[in-house]
Amino acid sequence: MKEFKTEQESFWAGAFGDEYIDRNNDHKIISSNTNMFSQVLSKTAGIKSVIEFGSNIGLNLYAIRALMKDVEFSAVEINKKAFSILKEVEWIKAYNQTILEFEPDYQRDLALIKGVLIHVNPEELPKVYELLYKSSRKYICIAEYYNPTPVSVNYRGNNDRLFKRDFAGEMMDKFDLSLIDYGFCYHRDNNFPQDDLNWFLLEKKDHNRGK
Ligand SMILES: C[S@@+](CC[C@H](N)C(=O)[O-])C[C@H]1O[C@@H](n2cnc3c(N)ncnc32)[C@H](O)[C@@H]1O
Fold first, then answer.
1. Ligand 1 center to residue 114 CA distance, Å?
2. Is 99 exposed, middle or buried (0-12, 13-18, 19+ CB in 10 A)?
3. Which residue in 121, 99, 119, 122 sits closest to 111, CA to CA?
4. Tens-of-pLDDT digits for all 211 residues of the chain?
5. 127, 165, 182, 186: least surrounded by Cβ within 10 Å?
6. What angle do CA 97, 58, 78 make, to 5 degrees?
């Protein structure tokens, strides 16, 4: 297997990442995602292209596609098994790469990351924030586990594999972004549970420049 810079990347590229796919392959997840993205996207305008970082088998992209037609979808995924499923989907442009090395080929209207920043080695976060900013023409959606201060939490018996913090706040400190909306999805929601995640929709303030 390819050598990665961080142990967190090797974790997701390897057996844990393979097993994650089977544990999380359920049409109910697409329903919950559709509910979440209907809230996120209702505050946007003119999205015609989306890139997701750490998309796994694309369950967020299926949800967005159910809500919006004529959108071009791209996905960057480190895990080979997840990538092999993604690349069979004719409407997804899939890249089998770590987001720590991915160089965006062109900007998309929306750059999305959900449940991935929490698994990135915290020392590498500035690189991923930069990637999100560079990849987006207009919007950035961050859906992760929020904590006001950085903390590391045991993840399925593993240490140093799950980190919570104010990812969106850190992006807003670093770049010229407006907060458009934010929300919470609860694991005990009656119809559309998610893993207690907080989503943030950010907009680039200079997105009209150069038009
Ligand atoms: C918890 S899952 C979330 C999947 C999906 N975003 C969702 O919301 O259902 C984390 C995903 O990110 C991928 N991932 C983790 N680190 C990555 C990295 N450095 N580069 C690319 N993908 C990564 C994993 O392989 C996995 O598919």
1. 8
2. buried
3. 99
4. 789 999 999 999 999 999 999 999 889 999 999 999 999 999 999 999 999 999 999 999 999 999 999 999 999 999 999 999 999 999 999 999 999 999 999 999 999 999 999 999 999 999 999 999 999 999 999 999 999 999 999 999 999 999 999 999 999 999 999 999 999 999 999 999 999 999 999 999 988 765 5
5. 186
6. 20
Closest-CA residue, ligand 1 atom 23, reads 54
Query: Please, what are the domains in the chain?
Result: 7-204 (3.40.50.150)
Task: List residues near ligand 1 (CB under 6 A).
Answer: 9, 12, 17, 54-56, 59-60, 76-79, 82, 98-100, 114-116, 119
